[in-house]
Specification:
single chain; 5-stranded mixed β-sheet; SulP family inorganic anion transporter; alpha/beta; two-stranded antiparallel ribbon
Length: about 475
């Protein structure tokens, strides 16, 4: 093991610790379950082949879906959902379908992350003020107007100060090289809360073993329910997409071995299967921890495995330390994480060159906020497919007047039923008193509806003037 991997593992551990706890609380489950997932991400997924430097654990991207699942089916069912998702991921990896996740529209993925970020921000702003958040996405947003009067000023100050430290700490380059921003932000918030004896809500801690709840046979039987099975698929597909997109991003940060997407999917599936067996949160590869791992100088998978070891040692030896952390500070941490999920910079570039993609992104995000994560992604995918079908169905009718020799009409592009009205309008505008030669050599695709329309038009013209049709190649 290299010294660089040892130091990188400590950096990743410091980043992962508050995030594991914060994601768990935001998901509506005990804090320890987030730590269990972080440990499994290091010790199980970290040991398996796939991506050598990306780090797995509970992710903010699944917070909304997990919270909804726990509210709908109860905490005991969480293990079944995660176990089922892990088995689906294993099957996808064995069938070598991992690479196909790269075919998902980038606009849909960015819209998914933006929607998750907006819901996460809206929900955690309430936690920053020690106030219970409304259940629905629109309700959270509508309730923000009355939040200032209901929030606890002390808690809101702690959460706001945490966000301020997260924004300002990276500007101090020397300090940022030594400690990642989440650790000093949470540590300072905890110290201030204790020093001034602020009466704000703190993290509730139980023993690590007490929080582990393997699913019972009765809960396993719920996999036959349509709603439960749909949630399992949502867990599996979204976690897989997030992990593999994270892998692609991490590959751009280093010059080491590239990710094997199918093996990485198997590693994620194995990790989630273990998390499910322990009743813990689902895990994905997390870009924040992975980027910290690369930037800290990691060279091999030893760093991510060791980060799991440090999480295990910490929760086993000094779990009581978690009890001094104010919930408002963790909420501030997740508000900051939610802001990072909204792709503001990418929107500018997309708007200049691909405004249709911005529409797909925006509709996906709004659908997630208004409904839920799974439905929002389905809406986004359907819109992306419809946009692609529309984009590739462009067809043009070009006319050339050759005097006494008649006219040449060329049809080029992709003739599909989506553009059939435009095609017919252009053909019917051709003068009826001229000989016409119809050339279809420029067509790349002709569907049945357009082929039949062209044949009818040619047959009708044949009664007036001879129309010669050049077949498409």
């Amino acid at each position: 093991m290299r010294k660089a991997d040892l130091s990188a593992s400590l950096v990743v551990f410091l980043v992962a610790l508050p995030l594991c706890v914060g994601v768990a609380i935001a998901s509506g489950v005990p804090a320890e379950l987030g730590l269990v997932t972080g440990i499994v991400g290091g010790l199980v997924a970290g040991l398996l082949p796939g991506s050598s430097l990306q780090v797995s654990g509970p992710a903010a991207g699944l917070t909304v879906l997990v919270y909804e699942a726990v509210q709908t089916y109860g905490l005991p069912a969480l293990g079944v959902l995660v176990l089922g998702a892990g088995l689906v991921q294993l099957a996808l990896g064995v069938l070598r379908l991992g690479r196909w996740f790269r075919a998902v529209s980038v606009a849909v993925v960015q819209g998914m992350l933006a929607g998750i970020g907006l819901v996460l921000i809206a929900g955690q702003v309430y936690a920053m003020g020690d106030v219970s958040a409304p259940a629905s996405g629109p309700g959270k947003i509508a309730g923000l107007f009355s939040l200032p009067g209901a929030a606890d000023p002390a808690a809101l100050a702690v959460g706001g100060a945490t966000v301020a430290v997260l924004l300002l700490w990276p500007r101090w380059r020397r300090g940022a090289r030594v400690l990642p921003a989440p650790l000093p932000a949470v540590a300072l918030a905890s110290a201030a809360t204790g020093l001034f004896d602020l009466s704000v809500r703190r993290v509730t801690v139980r023993g690590l073993l007490d929080s582990v709840q393997p699913p019972s046979l009765a809960e396993l039987g719920r996999l036959t329910e349509v709603g439960v099975f749909g949630t399992v698929l949502a867990f599996a597909l979204i976690a897989s997409a997030e992990s593999l997109f994270s892998a692609a991003a991490v590959d751009r940060l280093h010059r080491g071995p590239r990710t094997d997407y199918d093996r990485e999917l198997i590693a994620q599936g194995a990790g989630n299967a273990v998390c499910g067996a322990l009743g813990a949160l689902p895990m994905t590869a997390v870009i924040v921890r992975s980027a910290a791992n690369v930037q800290a100088g990691a060279r091999t998978k030893a760093s991510r495995v060791l980060h799991g070891v440090w999480l295990l040692v910490f929760t086993a030896v000094v779990p009581g330390v978690l009890g001094i952390i104010p919930v408002a500070a963790l909420a501030g941490l997740l508000v900051h994480a939610g802001c990072k999920l909204v792709p503001v910079r990418e929107l500018r570039g997309l708007w200049r060159g691909h405004r249709g993609e911005v529409v797909v992104l925006g509709v996906t995000a709004v659908a997630i906020v208004a409904g839920n994560l799974f439905e929002g992604v389905l809406v986004g995918l359907a819109l992306a497919v419809a946009k692609t079908a529309w984009d590739i169905s462009h067809v043009q009718v070009e006319t050339e007047d050759r005097g006494a020799a008649g006219m040449v009409v060329r049809v080029v592009g992709n003739a599909t039923f989506l553009r059939l009205p435009k095609l017919l309008d252009a053909l019917e505008a051709v003068p009826h008193d001229r000989d016409v030669r119809l050339e279809l050599g420029g067509l790349r695709h002709v569907d049945h509806a357009c082929a039949a329309a062209l044949e009818r038009w040619a047959a009708a013209r044949d009664h007036e003037r001879v129309a010669t049709i050049t077949s498409t190649s």
